[in-house]
Amino acid sequence: MDDKYEIFCLVNDKRNKARILLNEEQERYKIKFEMETCSVLVEAENYFYALIELRKRLETEKIKLLCKGCSRYVYPSPMILGMGDAIEAYELTLGKHATVKNLVNIFSSCELDEYATIEEQLAYYEEWLKSKKE
Q: Distance between CA 41 and CA 32 in Å, rounded?
């Protein structure tokens, strides 16, 4: 899969356009991030983990990606992480089971108020796991 996504990101609280390029080679998933004078290449065992690696690098530069994979409410299930490319994840609501209808592409755009750090996103996922499901 060689896909391209146009996304927005915040750099020092200013909105900028950026491009995400995806590539899979020999079960390694690569993300190339491009924005004006900045280019970053990361790889991991799936796209979600590669996105986390990208975020670690960008967040030190105060760059926030505004895509679903960076949303507080989005996290892949263990099955998604263990099988395939993990380009989709569940949009989670406390107290509710996640269903196929809740799957979103992790590179789809999100709003700034959905953005969370890696730690905040994981904390919400753990809270969701503990919440009673209807």
A: 4
